Automatic annotation (TrEMBL):
<dbReference type="InterPro" id="IPR002641">
    <property type="entry name" value="PNPLA_dom"/>
</dbReference>
<keyword id="KW-0442">Lipid degradation</keyword>
<dbReference type="GO" id="GO:0006508">
    <property type="term" value="P:proteolysis"/>
</dbReference>
<dbReference type="InterPro" id="IPR045943">
    <property type="entry name" value="DUF6363"/>
</dbReference>
<keyword id="KW-0443">Lipid metabolism</keyword>
<feature type="short sequence motif" description="DGA/G">
    <location>
        <begin position="161"/>
        <end position="163"/>
    </location>
</feature>
<dbReference type="InterPro" id="IPR016035">
    <property type="entry name" value="Acyl_Trfase/lysoPLipase"/>
</dbReference>
<feature type="active site" description="Nucleophile">
    <location>
        <position position="40"/>
    </location>
</feature>
<dbReference type="Pfam" id="PF01734">
    <property type="entry name" value="Patatin"/>
</dbReference>
<dbReference type="GO" id="GO:0008233">
    <property type="term" value="F:peptidase activity"/>
</dbReference>
<dbReference type="InterPro" id="IPR037483">
    <property type="entry name" value="YjjU-like"/>
</dbReference>
<keyword id="KW-0645">Protease</keyword>
<protein>
    <submittedName>
        <fullName>Serine protease</fullName>
    </submittedName>
</protein>
<keyword id="KW-0378">Hydrolase</keyword>
<feature type="domain" description="PNPLA">
    <location>
        <begin position="7"/>
        <end position="174"/>
    </location>
</feature>
<dbReference type="Pfam" id="PF19890">
    <property type="entry name" value="DUF6363"/>
</dbReference>
<dbReference type="InterPro" id="IPR050301">
    <property type="entry name" value="NTE"/>
</dbReference>
């Protein structure tokens, strides 16, 4: 079986503008992959790589950075969703900053998204076909952060953010066949997640979702184990990791356009600093 090239995109809310910068450099330098998987904002922003729309995620995030119709506590209190569903998944891609569904469908790269089944707590992967309809629901599901978003129903099942179950799904593509993987993270290499201080609060919040509760309570341990495995795999030459050089200074929402631009610029610079290494790894 032929070895495929794979791209894995970690989530991280607006930190994924760093990923956007990296992917835009890939587009500008004709660096392509056979398949990609995105988690949370890694999926929501990463689809623009397959649709060949550089700077699109940067553009609309800067444009609506302070817009309460895009993301606000008011929206959260009223609808249960911090990020306004109609604005993010319909008005922006269909009217205000068009998502090129046709280009997305034409590009030969397979693009998968990862979401979490709230009944089982397990990661579920869906391959996007056109970006339209149910595909958009899967993108939304992948980026629906528990507490700050309502679960997304698809075919009678309910899903939350993929980061709950598999923040950096490095084991997904190897199960499908031989592969070389480039992993783009949104935290620096030396980052390790600290176990939450609010275990009792989480237990109460997720009392009706025991499988999700278990995932949330063990997330730091699971995440750090993945990072240790990534270190070993990279040392063995099996994967290549692209990571920010330092923690990215942004908030979950309501960032200034300049702060968002700065994160993008770091992504672009990091990609160019690693461009020859990436080409050598893929070839």
């Amino acid at each position: 079986m032929k070895e495929k090239t794979s791209l894995v995109l970690e989530g991280g809310a607006i930190r994924d503008i760093f990923t956007t910068g990296v992917l835009d450099v890939f587009l500008a330098n004709n660096i392509t992959f056979d398949q990609a998987v995105g988690v949370s904002a890694g999926a929501a922003f990463g689809v623009n790589y397959k649709s060949h729309q550089p700077q699109r995620a940067l553009r609309y995030n800067k444009r609506f950075a302070k817009n309460n119709h895009y993301a606000s506590l008011k929206s959260w209190r009223k609808t249960g969703n911090l990020y306004n569903v109609e604005m993010c998944y319909h008005i922006i891609p269909d009217l205000l900053d068009y998502f090129d569904y046709d280009a997305f469908a034409r590009d030969p790269m397979d693009f998968w998204v990862c979401a979490t089944d709230i009944e089982t707590g397990k990661a579920v992967f869906h391959r996007l076909i056109s970006g339209r309809g149910e595909d958009m629901d899967w993108i939304r599901a992948s980026a629906s952060i528990p507490v700050f978003a309502t679960p997304v129903e698809i075919d009678g099942h309910f899903y939350w953010d993929g980061g709950v179950s598999d923040s950096i799904p490095i084991d997904f593509f190897p199960k499908l066949g031989p592969t070389k993987q480039v992993i783009i993270t949104t935290q620096p290499r030396n980052y390790r997640k600290i176990p939450g201080k609010h275990r009792l609060l989480y237990s109460r919040i997720f009392k009706d979702y025991p499988a999700v509760k278990e995932r949330v309570l063990n997330r730091a341990q699971d995440y750090n184990q993945t990072l240790e495995k990534m270190t070993q795999l990279e040392n063995d030459g099996e994967i290549l990791v692209i990571a920010p050089p330092a923690p990215l200074k942004v908030k979950t929402f309501k960032n200034s356009p300049q702060a968002i631009q700065n994160i993008y610029n770091i992504g672009v610079k990091t990609a160019y600093n690693n461009l020859q290494k990436i080409r050598h790894f893929l070839n």
